Request: fold
Amino acid sequence: MKRLLVCLLLCLLLAACGETEISTTAASKAPAPGLTGVWVNAGQYSEGRDFVETLTLSEDGAVTVHLEYQGSDYATLTGSWTVSDGILNVDFTDPNTRDRVYTYALTDTTLTLTGDGKDVEYVRE
Reply:
């Protein structure tokens, strides 16, 4: 059941992910200051169940993804993030959780993650 919950969380958070291989050097990877902060994606699944997904990108390169489902804590994932050549890489600590790669668009108030032909929009909190 826990594995299903983690998969659901990842599908929400990183619905736009792909299996893209990115070749960069370690020196070119670093958190991008404009991306740091707390980002929220709230809505409903197709069956009408409410969710709130909170993505926290810290200045030190740490990432936390928290999912609240139907008003209750559901799952939390942690890891690290870097940006290289306009690509956001999210590496999760849990070895059973697949790491993610996105392109992104950023404004002062929104972050849109894109992968696999899908966009997921977050609002800065």
